[in-house]
Amino acid sequence: MPVGINQVALKPNQVDKHLPCKKRFEIACYKNKVLEYRSGVETDLDNVLQIPSVFLSVGKGQTAPSQDLAKAFGAKTSVDDIILEILNKGELQVGEKERHAQLERVHNEVVDIVAGKLVDPKSKRVYTTGMIEKALDQLSSQGTHAHKQEEGKGSGTATPTIGEEDGDHAKGKGKEMPTWTGVVTTKSAKSQALEAMKALIAWQPIPVSRARMRLRITCPQAILKQGAKPAPKKEGVGDGADGEGEKGKGTVKDRILSYVEEIESQDDVGAEWEVVGFVEPGAFKGLGEFIGGETKGRGRVEVLDMAVVHEGE
Predict the structure, then answer these.
(1) Whether the Cβ atoms of residue 119 and residue 309 lie closer than 8 Å to each other
(2) Which of 25, 166, 205, 291 could form a disulfide with 299 if both were Cys (CB 3.0 to 4.6 A apart)?
(3) What is the pLDDT of residue 160?
(4) pTM listed for this prediction
(5) Could you tell me the CA-to-CA distances from 72 to 61, 91, 175, 212 in Å, in that order?
(6) What whole-number distance in Å separates Cα of residue 112 and Cα of residue 189?
(7) Tell me: the pLDDT tens digits for 192-219?
(8) What is the DSSP track for 37-51?
(9) pLDDT of 38-97, one tens digit each?
(10) What is the number of other CB atoms lying within 10 angstroms of the CB of residue 262?
(11) What gap in Å lies between CA 62 and CA 71, rounded to an integer?
């Protein structure tokens, strides 16, 4: 048996809970290629599979009998399709050291993403990765403690959290507060970074806010003075929706400027009006939809910088 084999194992009930066979099937793969294949980086199965066979035990070199495969996956399912099924849905068997290294890689990637997207609200400067890491560790410890407290005491006797003393409405808000309990290897670093940022912004273990976007907005001058359509009222609005009532009033130009936190420049260029300014990431979608709807495609929003930060001490 070749060395350096990783295993991907699959129980039939991971594919179909009604399959009568309860055997476990495995395939032999090259180290680290399974994750690349699942993420779309690797597409050539020859670079993923070490042996194009299905096993009952890779370690013992025991291949799966065809009758067992037929019973578990169906008589008409080919071996190639079974291998793909195991590769896509099976549980990756990795050693403790490799699992720890993978977790550390994801953790570092999450911290790097967060550190590049969040800033001090006053100075607009980025935090070091070390400070972000400490803040996330603090949230993780608080989240674990709160979970254990809730399990031990029940929601009726637990120490009130933020806003609970203000009544049922505040309690509802408290339940919706995002939490952070640490990284996992089953989710992408990008999605976990978004979860981490939401928790940091909600709980503020250190003063943080999303770094603003720098945009160039262009609109025909003939449209600017027209009355804007009333903004639709939404329940459960997200980030960047504060002050939606103000955005619903005035001319098209007033509405556009209501999305812009800080104007860098404002000029008339021929028949068009152009403004460059800073916008909160949460307001970007609403701004784009407004300009697209009001100008019928004649206005534009161009991203000049996804995250404006100030470097240095």
Answers:
(1) yes
(2) 291
(3) 34
(4) 0.61
(5) 20, 17, 43, 53
(6) 10
(7) 999 999 999 999 999 999 999 999 999 9
(8) HHTTS---GGGTEEE
(9) 778 888 999 988 889 998 888 888 999 999 899 888 899 999 999 998 888 887 776 788
(10) 10
(11) 18
